[in-house]
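Researcher: We're teaching a course module on how sequence relates to structure. For the next exercise, students receive a sequence and then see the predicted structure as tokens, so they can try to spot secondary structure elements on their own. Here is the exercise chain.
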Amino acid sequence: MPYSHRLQALALGMSAPSLASLALASVSLASLPFASGRAQAETLQQALVRAYQSNPTLTAARAGQRAIDENVPLAKAEGRPSAGLTGTYEEILKRPYYGYTATPARSLTGQAQLSVPIYQGGTVRNRIKSADASVQAGQQTLRATEASVFSAVVAAYMDVLRDTAVVSYNRQNVTSLETNWQASRDRFEVGDLTRTDVAQSESRLALARASLLSAQAQLITSKENYISLVGSEPAGLETPPSLPGMPETAEQAVEVALKDNPDILAAQHNRSAAHYDVNAARGLVGPRLSAVASGSYTDYLNSEKDLSIPLGYGSVRQASAGVQMSIPLYQGGQPGAQSRQNIARESQAIENEIATERDVIAQTRSAYAAWQASLHMIESTRTAISSGELSLEGVRAENSVGTRTILDILDSQRDLLNAQVQHVTAQRDAYVAGFALLAAMGHAQAADLNLDTGGPLYDPTENYRRVRGKLLDFDFGNRPQPQAPRTVATTPQSADEEAVAPR
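Model: And here is the predicted structure for the students to work with:
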């Protein structure tokens, strides 16, 4: 059995025989058994599905991406025909008089205009390309947000498991120290121990009770954080399955991250968008060519009948069509300034891409190191627990024959508690660091985790395909409605241990 698989088993609290099917089980979260027979039990996959469907950070990010999608039809609108109608009613309050007048007293004029852009100096084409690149960058940013939310959910899930175990260990420690304290008092009454021994037992008991209260407060905090992220109370949380697709080396993890990390891909698309913005700005100095057409109708509303020189039939019709060319000669330096500004932004995007790559490499290597260190910590603390249990048993036996003091028993109990707490903490840290490593590699999205068991996955390209070719001015869309549920009706959490499924 590979060493890495043995370490993964330790991270999940699995025994060595249970690893026979690990290679098969690590393919995906959905392929693993979740002990579904337990009432009200909740798995990590179910928690991730809830967060995927209703976490407000995710639903807000999706709405933001839909707003970015609209930049494409906005850019296309600049190259599309425009048409309009103008209506004017005019009442002449004072007409000139030169022995006769040729001015009607009133008029009603309607005019229609149509303009069809033919050539815009390349600005429209490049703005469309920039908008498309921004959409792709936004989609990758949405992937990154998704992975960030999932990482937070995994951490919150593991925090509840860890803190529940810590509360249980502290409660057991208090019970044991209460027994020791009572035994010390009894032995003091018969003269077998001194008042110092009783004081030592009482002091450790008081500290243990304080530690229990602190652990209970931390458990409540973890539960409330879980509710904030998932939207529901933790109930019967089960030990999570092994993480799929873990790398063998840090170099392998970095290689995958450089290809698949959504932050790097978003930075690359942002760089492309900035490049197209530079080209669009340079097109502002180019000529503009448009086909134009207009028509008008003027009705004098019978006010021309009193004129000494009639105007014919009381109305005037006019129509025209042609081609209009505009050649900008001077625009106050705006095109040059905008071009230089966009060049600076492209330079910024290039440097941001390098900075993002650096950050991803550092995050990936750090996550791998933390994951490996936690796996080794699990093995070490497991040994410490085993040795601590034997040590405590031996010290108690030696104390009964007078070769060990009460302080030795108290120290052994404290060391055992510390080892137990460090063990469950290492289990939590290993899983969280492992998931953070997957996120840095770009493999912590809903599709990677098989979250489609809760329904179809959100596809950001669907809205993009729907809106990119829209033409109508009056297609305003629907009024927004809240997507994420509120948690004000959830029950205030307590420090009980019902959040973890029995084993």
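Model: If you want an answer key for the exercise: Residues 1-39 have pLDDT under 50 and may be disordered. DSSP finds twelve helices and four strands in the chain.
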